[in-house]
Amino acid sequence: MSIFRDKQIKHFLIFVAIYNILLVGIASWFYQNQIAETKSMFVEHDTAIISSLLEQGVSNEVIATAIFNTEVSTNGTELLKFLGIGENSIGNSLPYFSQFHHYSLIKICFIGIVLIFVLLLGIFVFLWSRNQLFQQAGKVINNYIQNDYSYHLPQNSEGEIFRVFASVEQLATMLQSQKETEHRTKEFLKNTISDISHQLKTPLAALAMYQEIIEAEPDNVETVKEFSTKIGAALKRMEQLILSMLKITRLDTGNIVFEKTLYPVKEVVENAINELTTRAIHEEKQIIIYGEPNQMLICDMDWTGEAIGNLVKNALDHTEPGKTIHITWEKSPTMLRIFVSDNGNGIAPEDIHHIFKRFYRSKHSLDTPGIGLGLPLAKSIIEGQGGLISVQSDLHRGTTFTISFLTKS
Prior knowledge:
Blueprint: H1 7-55, H2 60-67, H3 74-83, H4 95-145, H5 160-216, H6 221-252, E1 261-264, H7 265-273, H8 277-282, E2 286-290, E3 296-299, H9 301-317, E4 324-331, E5 335-342, H10 374-384, E6 388-394, E7 398-406
Parallel strand pairs: 2-4
Antiparallel strand pairs: 1-3, 4-5, 5-7, 6-7
């Protein structure tokens, strides 16, 4: 039974068992002691009678016959009544019995007091320890109510009460996790709004300036045309920024459900670069893909394509005309890897650990296009599907991004 797993109850039950054994032992001792006292009283009484009879000259034979006699006669009964000795005689007429009764009463009272004290002490210790446990639990639960989860309920024993404590502790852990999640969500939203506000300041300021210039020279067609083009570019950058931030926010908050299906890797890659081949041709760059055409990958086609596309865009941004971007893939018994490699400018060692941070822009690439969200978005997409993304780069020699997905055996 689970009640016997509670250490305090177990100790109390052991105390009760020992107490009962002690009680039986004392009762047995008291019984033997009373028998011995009774024998001693009768021997002393018989000795006094024999001594009195001997002093009066009664022979030993007569005394011996009287002592061992077991028959009761009417004359004997009448004589005892005449002497005032009977079942209802007062103690003074039976001095030996009176003394025996007095000592026996003292022993019974003493033993009774000791047993009651031991019993009450055991009950007090049990109730005190139980009360201490409840007080400790009450303080911890009150701390939980005050949102202080630094203390924990006792978990060092078994039993029903500790099962209740474990359930309360689990509930407190859930509440703490929920509060931490709410706090992280608030911080995330706060940081996201701050990031968007900060990033929108530049294009908004540019738009205001362009609008003022156009208003100042409304009749200058070239000026209007030039700054109208700049307004369009700024608006496009703002749109790209807001869409990217919304995507990252939805990914980070778990509001995106990836619809995973089995696709050929080649089809996923071709879908990713479909809109980038024209840009590559225009910039005199080349995108080459090769790999086993029958290799399959379980993923969300659109989101994975966007992640690969962002890596390819990053490669196009950091390669010179005439350079090449390679997209390859290989499969092992446990892993499928997609590589996006270029022979461009590479990444400086001091930047390699920061490139997946939002809005991070290396001082070496301030003159290249981009808003610093492509790589973080790619990382969120890949990791959201249970994959990994890593990077290796040599400055001025090129960069390789590796996307890894576990494959089912």
